[in-house]
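Quiz preparation item.
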């Protein structure tokens, strides 16, 4: 079930100054494009460390055409530079990360420096500059992680949830968005399969025929993040209701006539991904289009406005044994829906 009411929220970003870490990545570019098309922001800052990507991005999103744009070279590992970029910023969307599982396994300290220490830098700089809202992007791999990438994002999530304690009465609020595989994003399996097909492959490699994954389009992810910016109160982890698909069905949808070559599961890879575990169920609420994991922290229940004011509106608690994973999902992608998502990703 993918609901269109992400668009229905009365989201007001007019006059806001927004900084996006990892702003030249797949999500960053889609987020920038969406904000420029829909909202009249005061300032939109692309913060990233790759000068070539910034140069290429400026060919499409030129500051001469969009005066609100600022391109800021910097690394979230560099706290001084990050603090300078966050001056006079209202909202931070944190999407910068090292995301490739095998790269993180081979370069563990680099992964930790970016995903964990970088997250801590974002938190401290946001507090230092009295940013109003910080929304960090996470991944389903952060739930019961078995690889370093997932573990580093779990640590990052914990940093941002607990940061609400440090904010005190200053007013800075931190929250997290967590979702699954992005259709068509760089490094995902779909472009890999499509390349093999275009090169005349005789079969498609499948690690395990039982494997399932959650799927979301880049635009859906952007819309979900923007909707969470509107409703976040601080400390929540938001998860969209998104469909699952077996990897064998995915491969068959892309190339119906090609056989599958089972190559075995890779180190650090799960059969199924989890967005909400049974351990989070006591703190989880279900809404029409999403789930919200609320924090088990004192700052949440002792809110001066009352504990009930912190609970998500129009939400109901999930059962105690609730688990939201890609294999027990009630919403499954058909080949037709996958094709629609691929067309959207190609636009």
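Solution:
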């Amino acid at each position: 079930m993918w609901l269109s009411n992400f668009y229905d929220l009365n989201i007001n970003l007019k006059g806001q100054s927004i900084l996006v870490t990892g702003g030249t990545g797949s999500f960053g570019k889609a987020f920038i494009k969406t904000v420029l098309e829909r909202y009249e922001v005061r300032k939109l800052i692309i913060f990233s460390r790759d000068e070539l990507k910034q140069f290429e991005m400026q060919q499409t999103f030129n500051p001469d055409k969009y005066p609100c744009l600022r391109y800021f070279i910097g690394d979230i590992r560099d706290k001084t530079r990050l603090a300078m970029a966050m001056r006079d910023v209202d909202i931070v969307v944190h999407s910068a990360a090292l995301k490739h599982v095998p790269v993180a396994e081979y370069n563990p300290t680099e992964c930790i420096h970016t995903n964990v220490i970088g997250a801590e830098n974002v938190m401290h700089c946001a507090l230092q500059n009295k940013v109003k809202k910080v929304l960090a992007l996470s991944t389903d791999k952060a739930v019961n992680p078995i690889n370093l990438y997932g573990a580093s994002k779990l640590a990052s999530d914990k940093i941002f949830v607990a940061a609400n304690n440090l904010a005190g009465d200053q007013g800075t609020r931190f929250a997290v968005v967590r979702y699954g595989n992005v259709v068509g994003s760089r490094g995902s399996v779909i472009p890999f399969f499509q390349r093999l097909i275009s090169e005349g492959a005789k079969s498609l490699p499948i690690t395990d025929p039982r494997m399932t994954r959650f799927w979301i389009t880049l635009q859906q992810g952007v819309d979900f993040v923007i909707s969470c910016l509107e409703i976040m109160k601080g400390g929540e982890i938001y998860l969209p209701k998104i469909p699952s698909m077996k990897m064998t069905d995915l491969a068959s949808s892309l190339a119906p006539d090609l056989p599958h070559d089972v190559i075995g599961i890779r180190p650090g890879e799960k059969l199924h991904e989890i967005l909400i575990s049974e351990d989070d169920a006591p703190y989880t609420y279900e809404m029409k289009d999403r789930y919200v994991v609320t924090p088990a922290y004192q700052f949440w229940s002792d809110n001066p406005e009352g504990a009930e004011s912190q609970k998500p509106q129009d939400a109901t608690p999930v059962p105690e044994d609730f688990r939201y994973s890609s294999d027990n999902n009630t919403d499954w992608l058909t080949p037709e829906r996958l094709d629609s998502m691929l067309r959207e990703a190609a636009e």
